[in-house]
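@channel sequence for tomorrow's demo:
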Amino acid sequence: MGDSELVTAVDVQLMQGLAQRVTAVRPDLVNSDASVGELAWIWGKGQVSDGGSWRRRLWFAGGELVAWGWATMPRRVRRNDGSVKDVTGACLAYQVHPGHGELVDELIDWYDGVAAGLERSVIAQAADEFALERWTAHGYETDPAALGDAGSWTQLNVRELDDVERPVLPDGFRFRTADEAGPQAAVQAHVDAWAPSPYTAEGYEGVRRTPPYRGDLHILVEAPDGTMAASTIMWLDEVNRTAEFEPVGTHPDHRRRGLGRALLLHGMHLAREAGARHTTVACLGAPGHPAARGLYYSVGFCKFTRDVPLVKRADRGRQGPA
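structure tokens (generated this afternoon):
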């Protein structure tokens, strides 16, 4: 078992390796913040600004990582519009190999210890009935904010790449790669789509240095005036021959023009050429968030699994397992 320390680039690579092994046997148990692409995206863009708030613990068996917890502690987030958000609670990303489910209780105890006195949140997979039972036994409950039409839970969508239609862009628009467009354009495309955003040029440099990032699989749509109107990064898992879209965004002035659809279809062709057999993408799953879900369904994605946001209030104290 590794000591509780700050997350490192080596840790992230070990976590990605576990994600690949879990994907190979039970892809429905890969937690939403624990996929190969999501780990790369979170680490790459946030290591400089948020890294001091990240705590981790690793569990090994026979020299191989079989479980990990990554706790994000209270911090201040500065966004590109000048606003500041103070995050006062703790949030956990984690993964446990299905062959080592007995470690779930130990992981929860570690999280309750490192985040003692704080409101604690965690996201588990709906398919992981054993883990959900253990979180409940330790006093965690479904997050009320995640319920209802505007709930914050996400679903993972999957699509095979055996039959992909050709993308069609409006006149004057064209596809670019991040290698072609350059760092400044890549950053601005994301900031425009997700404003207000804490994403910076420094964050993008972190993304570029994080495997399995590839500039030729980071694609953009350029408008006739030179604006980067849409963008996405594809993260290729060569072991499982899958590609993950994360993130996907369109400039607000260019929405409802079919750019997102064309971008995804173009990305699928590139992913297939790179060796992928299927692709994944996540979105908000509650009824009140239909836009992204409808876009993904329109290009052939279908729901695969969903997550369950859980919370333990600060005044609940530390509880032992039932």
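heads up for whoever presents: The chain has a mean pLDDT of 94.
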